[in-house]
Amino acid sequence: MQAFTTLTARTAVLAADNVDTDQIIPARFLTTTARTGLGAHLFADWRYDPAGRPRPEFVLNRPEAAGCGILVSGGNFGCGSSREHAPWALLDYGFRAVISTGIADIFRNNSLKNGLLPVIVDAATGAWLIAHPGIELTLDVPSTTLTLPEGRVVSFPLEPFARHCLQNGVDELGYLLGHRAAIGTFETRR
Questions:
Q1: Helix residue spans in the chain (DSSP H)
Q2: Domain span at residue 133?
Q3: For residue 119, is pLDDT > 90?
Q4: Domain-embedded: residue 107
Q5: How does pLDDT run across 50-106, given as a tens digit for each residue?
Q6: Which is it for strands 70-73 and 136-140: parallel, antiparallel or unpaired?
Q7: Which of 110, 89, 109, 111 is nearest to 98 (CA)?
Q8: What pTM was computed for the model?
Q9: Is 81 inside any structural domain?
Q10: What CATH number has the domain bearing residue 176?
Q11: CA–CA gap between residue 19 and residue 43 (Å, rounded)
């Protein structure tokens, strides 16, 4: 997992509430355990018509969405079933963070374990972000803040262990393996 301390990137806005994991990555694409290649299927049922042609009206098919590293969405993002493929698809597409007024717990935990930063903001900030697609934001993991273009700083919740893991590019297992020597010493004494 890549370390995550700060990110300055443009936003793509998906102004929808209750975006569930089956919309993020439809179940028919869950046949792999590889983390690569899923970005092509991100929001597949919304991005492509039944013949597989891109729908020009969908936000990620618009030229201004190219290269955006932050996805802004409405409330209750990532609800539905527990599937790690959802954050994998977002990361593979190129997003490093998702901002919403509400993020489902299971999706949030899966995101943190895979290096995707889930950012929860207040309703006023969320509405402002949705109304201003394509802006450049700075997300700072150590200070748990996002900085808006005019300089306003907004705090977001992130527990210390998740912050530590993101900053060091490790998941829970990587964190434990980083203490292998101390674990070995403890086991030897027991």
A1: 21-24, 44-47, 85-93, 105-114, 123-131, 160-168, 172-177, 180-189
A2: 6-189
A3: yes
A4: yes
A5: 999 999 999 999 999 999 999 999 999 999 988 899 999 999 999 999 999 999 999
A6: unpaired
A7: 111
A8: 0.93
A9: yes
A10: 3.20.19.10
A11: 10
1 lies in some domain? no
Q: What whole-number distance in Å separates Cα of residue 131 and Cα of residue 138? A: 18
What radius of gyration do the chain's Cα atoms show? 18
Q: How far apart are CA 38 and CA 105, in angstroms?
A: 22
Instruction: Tell me, yes or no, whether 152 lies in a domain.
Output: yes
Category of 101 on φ-ψ map: left (φ > 0), alpha (ψ -120 to 50) or beta: alpha
Q: Is the pLDDT of residue 49 over 90?
A: yes
Q: What tokens does 188 get?
A: 């030897």
Report pLDDT digits (tens) over 126-183: 999 999 999 999 999 999 999 999 999 999 999 999 999 999 999 888 888 888 888 8
Total domain count, the chain? 1
